[in-house]
Specification:
Number of strands: 18
Low-confidence stretches: none
Helix content: 25-40%
Number of helices: 11
Mean pLDDT: 96
Shape: elongated
Structural class: alpha/beta
Bound molecules: pyridoxal-5'-phosphate
């Protein structure tokens, strides 16, 4: 007997229209450059299957993942030559996979350059380290014969501190400018989301926004251009009348000082709603009404005070406030982490 499962009691709603609007805004703010898209980590947790076709249809043609394991999901939606793997190929198996699929490795070291040349080479990108000291060849290695043999499409570098003001950005920009003619790359790329906020000088030919596509605001300059994309909703699975003196949740951290109505919500730390967010001033919302979270967050549940919405029923939906700049301030987590911690059940 084939019966499909009933609808889930929690969900991540991805506003694809807002995603596309964000990409267009970032593309416009990239000036003469075009915007690509960082789609690593399953589009920062929001789902390749939903986000990548929307970005592709909007006109995006440069997609960046971190791992080779992320490639197959991309190739269901976009041509291989539009996909780049930021970690590059350190083994002949990885290089062979790049050659067989036509996906572009980002060459990050002399070792990776050698591996790529030995595999037969072909179009690739080259990452040069202008100060982040994470991945990338050192500027003085650009003249190495192994590097000179590469067929470089995009020469790229990555900013360490684009979400801050300080001397690091200008220093990296100057180093990158100094290298732009050092190798015959077809195009140049420096900026992530925050880098786009730094202005046209930083855009070159191609920008690589990730966070801001998905609703993150890493610099104030982008605030009026970026819309929220990720919305979290969870439904009530039980309503209980609690008597004065009774406690809620593990370790009985909340005790009722009066009789009250409480609701149990189908969302927990396994979904990315962390335990540390319980017991503070955090709330869930129903039509704008605030429902304070009480007691400890469990793996699959949180409990809210229903005083402000006494007419709610089991199966009614509540909203989790998830405007990233605010949620980041309230939680102490970065806007990046708030996206990538979202659990698999939200995407069911
Ligand atoms: C993740 C990543 C990006 C995107 O950065 P955001 O800050 O999310 O815009 C761009 N370039 C590289 C090399 C990255 O690793």
């Amino acid at each position: 007997m084939a019966i499909s499962p009933p609808p889930p009691t929690l969900r991540l709603v991805v506003d694809a229209e807002a995603l596309v609007a964000n990409w267009r805004a970032l593309d416009t703010r990239s000036g003469a450059a075009r915007a690509g898209a960082a789609v690593k980590a399953d589009c920062y947790g929001l789902g390749v299957a939903q986000c990548v076709p929307a970005l592709r249809d909007a006109g995006c043609r440069d997609f960046f993942v971190a791992h080779w394991s992320e490639v197959a999901a991309l190739l269901e939606h976009v041509p291989a030559h539009q996909v780049a793997v930021l970690h590059g190929a350190n083994t002949s198996a990885e290089a062979a996979y790049a050659r067989a699929t036509g996906v572009r490795p980002v060459v990050n070291s002399l070792h990776q350059a050698l591996i790529w040349n030995e595999a037969g080479g072909g179009p690739c990108h080259l990452m040069v380290d202008t100060g982040i000291h994470r991945l990338g060849i050192q500027p003085e290695q650009i003249g190495d014969s192994t590097v000179r043999r590469l067929e470089v499409e995009v020469l790229m570098s990555h900013l360490s501190s684009a979400d801050e003001d300080g001397s690091a950005n200008a220093a990296q920009l100057a180093r990158f400018k100094g290298l732009k003619n050092a190798i015959g790359a077809r195009e140049l790329s420096l900026s992530n989301s925050a880098g786009i906020g730094l202005g046209a000088d930083y855009a070159f030919d191609l920008t690589r926004p990730g966070l801001a596509l998905y609703g993150g605001i890493p610099r104030a300059e982008l605030a009026d251009a970026i819309r929220q994309v990720a919305y979290l909703k969870a439904s009530l699975i039980q309503i209980t009348d609690l008597k004065q003196g009774e406690s809620v949740g593990y370790n009985a951290e909340f005790t009722a000082t009066n009789d009250m109505r409480i609701g149990t919500v189908s969302l927990g730390y396994a979904d990315g709603f962390l335990r540390g967010w319980g017991g503070k001033d955090n709330v869930l919302l129903h039509e704008g009404r605030m429902l304070p979270i009480i007691g400890k967050v469990s793996m699959d549940m949180i409990v809210v005070d229903l005083a402000n919405a006494p007419a709610l029923h089991v199966t009614d939906w509540l909203d989790v406030p998830y405007f990233l700049p605010d949620a980041s301030r309230n939680s102490g987590l970065s806007q990046y982490e708030l996206l990538t911690i979202l659990g698999q059940r939200l995407r069911g």
